[in-house]
Amino acid sequence: MKYKYIFFDLDGTLTDSKEGIINSIKYALSSLGEPIPDDTTLQRFLGPPLVYSFGEFCGMSAEKAALAVEKYRERFSVTGIFENRVYDGIDDLLQELVNGGRVPVLATSKPRVYAERIMTKFGLRPYFKLLCGSELDGTRNAKSEVIEYAIEKSGCPRDKIIMVGDREQDISGAKKCGIASCGVRYGYASAGELEAAGPDYIADTPDELLTILMR
User: Fold this and answer.
1) What is the CA radius of gyration of the chain?
2) How far apart are CA 22 and CA 76, in angstroms?
3) If 0-12 CB within 10 Å is exposed, 13-18 middle and 19+ buried, where does residue 53 land?
4) By CB count within 10 A, which of 9, 38, 62, 203 is most buried?
5) How confident is the model over 46-56, as pLDDT tens digits?
6) Residue ranges for the chain with pLDDT beneath 50
7) What is the pLDDT of residue 151?
8) pLDDT of amino acid 14
9) Rounded distance between C-alpha atoms, residue 106 and residue 59, angstroms
10) What pLDDT shows up at residue 48?
């Protein structure tokens, strides 16, 4: 097999978590008396680390962005975390990968403690050998840091790993770590974002993704 270890992003790749994330962003901004950005700007929050997004898209200082993340977590950890659903076809995709001898690994910028709860709640945890993410204290915020950590933990040769994700950060993180990548168009990328990032493959649907991964 060309790729044995399949590294998956979470938000926008395995689950549609947009509702919970955006509702929690709005809560954080309202709590701090900040204006709510338009829908196009809010969509850009889906993927990158939140502390970066609050600074980049809301013009916050590093200190205020960190406070916004704290406010975000007040709501997300209780309610927003489960305003979420697994994309149609993902369960079948993961089962086929495991049946075919592939090893799914989660590599998400979301804090690992939240990822564990989501993966368990929605029945995805049994498919995965490892769950790798950031930490609440900011450790491994960058996607490349998460991917590098997952490579270290898996012990798999880089030429046997492919990263699957829906945003530019997934593709650039994979390139930085020297592994292959596949973008998925059914997630949160803006028009042309994945093409500009230059992944090795692009899939429009989970069925198409399975075909690519099982080649």
Assistant:
1) 16
2) 10
3) buried
4) 9
5) 988 899 999 99
6) none
7) 98
8) 98
9) 31
10) 84
Report residue 8: phi and psi, to 5°: -110, 135
- From the number of C-beta atoms within 10 Å of its C-beta (0-12, 13-18, 19+), residue 87 rates as middle
DSSP symbols for 100-144? TT-EEEEEEEEEHHHHHHHHHHTT-GGG-SEEEEE-TTSTT-SHH
Alpha carbons 43 and 210: distance in angstroms, whole number: 26
- Active site residue ranges: 9
CATH of 18-82, one of 3.40.50.720, 1.20.81.30, 1.10.150.240, 1.25.40.10: 1.10.150.240
The encoded tokens of residue 204 equal 């429009």
Same fold yes or no, 5-16+84-213 and 18-82: no
The full DSSP string for 28-67 is: HHHHTTPPPPPHHHHHTTSSS-HHHHHHHHH---HHHHHH
Q: Domain 5-16+84-213: which CATH class?
A: alpha beta
Q: Alpha-carbon distance 104 to 131, whole Å? A: 9
Q: Locate the domains of the chain by residue range.
A: 5-16+84-213, 18-82
Angle of helix 90-99 relative to helix 206-213, nearest 10 degrees? Answer: 10
pTM of the model: 0.93
The reported pLDDT for the residue numbered 215 is 86
Rounded to the nearest 10 degrees, the angle between the axes of helix 50-58 and helix 18-31 is 60
170, 8 Cβ separation under 8 angstroms:
no
